[in-house]
Structures are given as C-alpha cells and as structure tokens.
Specification:
Blueprint (H helix, E strand, L loop, with lengths): L2 E12 L2 E12 L3 E6 L5 H8 L7 E6 L2 E2 L4 H6 L1 E4 L11 H11 L4 H14 L15 H12 L6 E5 L7 H16 L3 E5 L3 H4 L4 E6 L2 E6 L1 H7 L5 H9 L2
Parallel strand pairs: 3-8, 3-9, 6-7, 7-8
Antiparallel strand pairs: 1-2, 1-4, 4-5, 9-10
C-alpha cells in the first residue's frame, strides 16, 4: 500500500494545554480513513495541521509527500477540503460557484467549462445551474461542496463532518459519492459524529483527549472491544 499521509508524534499545544498529543498514523492511497472523537478531542486541530493552516508544535507529518512545516502551499494545491460548515457562497449561483473555485484551483477556462458541464450533469443540477446556492436544500449544498472539493483532482480530500444535519437518505447518497472517489484512487480523510458512518470506512482512528486510543478496521475494533457496533466501541473508549 502506498502511504499518502504519514504522521509521527504530531503535537499541538496552546500554552499549557495540549490539544493534540503525539499522534502517529499513516493513511494509504484510495483509503477511506475515519478520524473520530467527541467534541474537543482534537480532531479539527489535527486536520488544520495536516492541511497546512496551523503549524504543529512538534513531531512530523507529510501529506501527499509534502512536509507540514515547510511545504504548506504545496499541500494546499494537492488536497481538497470540505469544512464542517457549508463552504460555498450563498449569493452566487451553482454555476458561478463552480467557476469561481475552478479559478482558485488554477484550472484553465476550457477545463472549468468542461468540469462544470460534467459536474452539473452528474449531480442532475442542469435545470438549476443558474439558481443561487443559498436557496438550495442543505443536502444539495453538501453534495455540490464535495464535488467542488474534487474539481482539481486532488490526491486527498479532507471532509470535516460533511453530513452533519442532513437526512439519512442524503447521507447515504453522499457516501456513495465518497466510495466512487475512493475507487478512482482519491484518499478520503473524514471526521463524523455518526458512528454508523464509521462502519463505511476502511480503517478508523478514535481520539480521546488529544490522543489516538484506537486505530484499526471497524471489524477488528468491534471484535477487540466485544461490541456489536462502532457506537459501543466509541462509548467504551470515550468513557475510559
């Protein structure tokens, strides 16, 4: 397996508080890697270091073969990112959002035009291409946001709680999009509050108080902790 993320003893402190405490793991090409933990466990802080917007205190990490200390701009060019909150612009149309972010990613006009047509057709949004994004249901917004994060064919996509607040059917459709991207070789690094979604991941890490306390396949974690599902595993670890 080809690792595309390699993390060793990565640490982030804020004064006397350690938000991320010497975490180590690898993520392979095309893998769906679940990064789980309760609020305040350190997940978002860790992601910020990996995507190059927060400098680690110590340790080391490479993302898409680029160093998180020295090559943050290269990291940003080679990843996609979808934040916990909807990341597109409500006062632009669907088509304008795609065109705008295509330009930010450095795509040519011809490529942007081609990608826009492909994306609108794939998401079945051709009839509302000129509609303001702010008027769309949350589920549609999230699917557009994920597709835009893939616009420049990144090696890795970071998804920070991408399905929060959407209905179960839309969540399932969203995960079908994740599977498709992973099957095409894109690595998916995803955080989620929904423990049933952890079952969809190839491997799962669970953070508690800034440390990774478990990392394995969902099947192996359930066997090890003698649990029926990932929710039980998570509760056992979170409660110590």
């Amino acid at each position: 397996m080809e690792p595309v993320i390699v993390v060793e003893n990565l640490t982030k402190t804020f004064g006397d508080f350690t938000a991320v405490d010497a975490i180590s793991f690898t993520v392979n090409k095309g893998e769906i890697f679940g990064f789980l933990g309760a609020n305040g466990a350190g997940k978002t802080t860790a992601i910020k270091m990996l995507i190059g917007i927060s400098r680690p205190t110590s340790g080391s990490a490479k993302v898409a073969d680029f160093d998180v200390f020295k090559e943050t701009e290269d990291i940003k060019r080679n990843i996609g990112y979808m934040s916990q909150k909807f990341a597109l612009y409500d006062d632009l149309t669907v088509k304008e959002n795609i065109t705008f972010f295509g330009g930010i990613y450095g795509l040519s006009r011809d490529i942007i035009k081609q990608k826009t047509q492909e994306l609108l057709k794939e998401l079945d949004l051709e009839t509302i291409a000129n509609q303001l994004v702010g008027s769309l249901p949350l589920g549609w917004k999230q699917k557009i946001s994920f597709s835009v994060a893939l616009l420049h064919n990144p090696k890795i996509v970071f998804l920070d709680e991408p399905t929060g607040g959407v209905d179960p059917i839309t969540r399932r459709q969203f995960w079908e999009m994740i599977y498709k991207a992973a099957n095409q070789g894109t690595t998916i690094f995803v955080t989620t509050h929904y423990m049933d979604e952890a079952e969809y991941c190839d491997r799962v890490s669970i953070m508690v108080n800034g440390k990774i306390v478990a990392l394995d396949t969902p099947k192996n974690l359930k066997q090890h902790f003698k649990s029926e599902n990932m929710n039980e595993v998570f509760l056992k670890l979170a409660r110590g």
